Amino acid sequence: MAAPDKSPKYLALYETVFSQPAIDNHAHPLLREDTRFSIPFEGLISEAEGAALTEDAVHTAACYRATKQLAHLFGLDEDASWEDIKKHRDSMSYADLCNLCFKDTGIRCILIDDGLGGVAEKAEGYKWHDQFTPAPTRRIVRVEIEAEGILKNIAASSSDVEANRDLFVTTLTESLTNSALDKDVVGFKSIVCYRTGMNVSVSGNKEEEQAALQEVLATYQAQGKLRLQHKALNDLVVRIALDVAGKYKKPVQFHTGLGDSDITLTLASPAHLQPIIRTYPETTFVLLHSSYPYTREAGYLTAVYRNVYLDFGEVFPFVSGEGQRSIIRQILELSPTNKIMWSSDGHWWPESFYLGILQARQALYEVLEDMVSRREVSEKEAIRIVEMSLFLNASKLYGL
């Protein structure tokens, strides 16, 4: 993609960073054209909600930077405001906007988690995104959403407590097995971080699981709403997913760290996963979103466990430029560079993919340039880090 610096210190490294094809190892679908204005655009630069999103997020360093970069993309004056950006994008045809944001980004393939809330009502299907990349889009199955669908079906059948629990285990195992055998599915994802926290139990208590199941079903029958947020049951879902994933060699992505106010931040550190990582050595864990602000904990886990990988995504563009460079440096403190992978965490708006790859390339170059200058790595080694983290590691891990 277009590189901002015309006179880089290390030309070969610079050219590699800004031309290396990239695999986006974690993203979500774009909004449909008819729903493109249904969600506040400020969600592009923040996970906040309400006034914290629409009134506060626009005053962050991350937003100021994104505004300048989008102004450049849209051909606006460099002093264009956030409101100017919104007005310009809103005036464009949706097809033109999407094509502009993906043009020359170098994103070769997108792995899409289509279980995000609101996708069914507002977003395009994962295959629709094939038009923007040379290689076909692949799917990541969100296990909690699969489990909730099964629970809704169970609610309409047997009332036997023990039978319901056993039926749930059997049906979820079969469902995830079928997904693992689907050629379009390259992995699973868990959002247990959002629901009950990362401290997943390595074993379960059947009576607690039955009680949690009955509570979920009773709520659904009484209110027509079902949300899986009972620790015994959530932990059971994760263990089932890890079993299936290990058997069929599918990585399991875990939301860690950075998220919205629904997360209990103290339970969002991947360090809580250490017991379950040890218990499932044949299953690959992918820690998403740089685990920010717990990046060092995530790096530690990749260094000491062969089955742990680290995704550096979502922090582009949610975190300031200096913060992004700090995150990359923290990752490189311990993480083996054959176990780190980029993602955009792109969602809803095509600009999220554009900013996700542009800012990642910039941060990678700036950090690696400094390391080469300090003679901590050679330029050749730095180039290899770029190739692995943007493409080769994900290609190998997901069997692409």
UniProtKB/TrEMBL annotation:
GO terms for molecular function: hydrolase activity. Gene3D superfamilies: Metal-dependent hydrolases. InterPro entries: Amidohydro-rel, Metal_Hydrolase. It holds the Pfam family Amidohydro_2. Coiled coil: none annotated. Residues 239-385 form the Amidohydrolase-related domain. This is Amidohydrolase-related domain-containing protein. It comes from Agrocybe pediades. The lineage of its organism: Eukaryota, Fungi, Dikarya, Basidiomycota, Agaricomycotina.
